[in-house]
Every structure is written in structure tokens, then in C-alpha cells.
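As described in the Methods, two query proteins were run sequentially through the folding procedure within a single session, without resetting any intermediate state between them. The first query and its resulting C-alpha cells are shown here.
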Amino acid sequence: MAFKIIASQCTQCGACEFECPSGAISFKTDRFVVDPKICTECRVEFAAPKCRAICPMPNTCVPA
């Protein structure tokens, strides 16, 4: 399972894009999106998903 970004809650700060170790987050049209084919949920690299940890808005980066 990958993560997704709740667009209505996202402040578009961009922190998640730069912190994502797999490069799964990008800015498309008018919002940040997670590519589920690339997202690893940071399982190998970290104890918790980096997007969720870095996001200033609670419950914005969530399991898809």
C-alpha cells in the first residue's frame, strides 16, 4: 500500500517532496501527489513514513 496526500488539507509547503527518499512525491497541476508505484512507505529506510513525519498538517499524508 502507498500513501496519499489529502489535497484539501495540504498547505503545499513542499517539505514532503524533498524528504521522500524514494522520490514518489511530486507537484502535479495544482497539488502534491504520491506515485503509488514508487512509494515504499519508507519501510526499508526508516521506522515511519517521512511524508507523515515532516508534514505540518496532521492527517494529511495518510495510507491510501
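Immediately afterward, the second query was submitted; its sequence and C-alpha cells are:
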Amino acid sequence: MEGAPVIVQPPGPDGGRRVTIRGEYVGIAYHLLDVVEFLRRAGLPEASTTVDDPELIEWRGIGPKAWTATG
């Protein structure tokens, strides 16, 4: 089994989180809605319930509710 197609890195110093989809860098998310937009652009499910699906998104370091470098 492969890992989740979407990887969201821990927040950087500015609170932004690097996002990759299927191994390709797609941008920096500063809010959960940014992640949802990246999912939409990639043709992946975008409903808010999917952000907690570990088979779709791997949240590294901290989960989807943290958007600052300190959590």
C-alpha cells in the first residue's frame, strides 16, 4: 500500500504549510481552505470531511487545525 497522495508539512515560520500531491509540489497553504483548493485543482475529493481521511492526506507534525509555527 502506498502512502496518502497528499502530504501537508508542518507549519513554517510564517505559518504556511508546504503541500505536495502525488509527489509534486503544489504550493503553500496558509489555511485549510487552501488545501481544499489544491485538492479541487488536482481532481481529488474536496469535501471538508476528507481532510481527516488519512488515506487521502498525511498531516505531518501536526493536524489540520494548526496554521502557525507554534501550533
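The helical segments are 32-41. We note this only descriptively and draw no conclusion about the first query from it.
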